[in-house]
Write a structure and sequence with these properties.
The protein is an alpha+beta fold. It has helices at residues 38-42, 81-85, 90-108, 181-193, 254-267; strands at 5-10, 18-23, 26-29, 36-37, 48-57, 60-67, 77-79, 120-121, 128-129, 136-137, 142-151, 154-159, 171-174, 196-208, 213-224, 236-241. Homodimer.
């Protein structure tokens, strides 16, 4: 059986297929969603910065049109990626999440980071190439850790000023150069809440397209210290009983998976599946 969505580098010289248009305001959408016949979309005189073939959906090729600036198309409007994440079609979200990462990379690598000359797309490869100094740039993935800290029937949850009002989540942070995921975890926990942890266990990973994170999920046990939230980073952090949890992140996020998995194991419930 053919997988519904597979990523691939497609030749933009070929005709046909579907396309999505992404701009500063998100993805173009009409009453049928964000997927448009590619040739129709390319006739709309959009300010296209770059075009990339990104994969196959149900066997059909899908392309991304990354726009240089906002544009208006009759009968259409724009919708941000986070809104698609909260909707029911997980496969469509995966398509758009990948498109968003490729679009961000294409936008940020128009010029060589070494000699500042214009970069060109490499045929049949996900790379940008500088013909002057031979530098090649590939899509960037930034590793980060995300951890649920527990203490018996309690879980440590915190909220950032950037979160939706009332929502609490797990701690997370990007790895520094030369740092292992476990070292990053210990450092971030100390920085954000000044706690010590032990028995660190890897639980799974999730690609997080805001804009290019690879989230490495962990569980850790509380080892000591009192909660002291990091100024300007953590608005509040508390221990919550598994029977009385606050509003939590979206169900498709790895943060929610880590929480739901611990609660399920603590209460003897069916374990959730990590979203792909």
């Amino acid at each position: 059986m053919t997988p519904r969505w597979t990523t691939a580098v497609l030749d933009t010289e070929l005709l046909g297929g579907w396309a999505v248009a992404r701009g500063p305001d998100g993805f173009l959408i009409d009453g049928n969603g964000p997927l448009f016949p590619r040739e129709w979309l390319k006739r709309q005189e959009l300010p296209v910065l770059a075009e990339h073939g990104i994969g196959h959906l149900d066997g059909e090729p899908v392309y991304l049109l990354e726009l240089e600036c906002p544009a208006q198309v009759e009968g259409c409007h724009w919708q941000g990626l986070r809104a698609f994440m909260l909707e029911g079609d997980h496969t469509l979200y995966r398509v758009l999440a990948y498109a968003a990462q490729i679009g961000t990379w294409a936008r940020e690598h128009r010029y060589c980071g070494s000699c500042a000359r214009l970069m060109v797309q490499v045929p049949r490869e996900r790379a940008m190439h500088c013909v002057v100094c031979e530098m090649r740039s590939y899509p960037r993935i930034s590793p980060s850790m995300i951890v649920l800290i527990t203490r018996g029937d309690e879980v440590l949850l915190a909220r950032s000023p950037r979160f939706v009002a009332g929502v609490y989540s797990t701690l997370a942070g990007f790895a520094e150069p030369g740092e292992s995921a476990e070292e990053c975890l210990v450092r971030e926990v100390r920085e954000e809440v000044q706690l010590e942890v032990r028995n660190i266990q890897y639980m799974g990973s999730q690609c997080w397209p805001f804009p290019h994170s690879m989230m490495l999920g962990f569980h850790a046990e509380y080892a000591g210290g009192d909660i002291v939230p990091q100024a300007d980073e953590i608005e509040d952090a508390q221990w919550f009983n598994v029977h009385r949890l606050p509003p939590l992140p979206a169900s498709r996020s790895i943060a929610r998976y880590l929480i739901d998995l611990y609660v399920a194991r603590r209460l003897g419930l069916a374990e959730p599946v990590l979203p792909g």
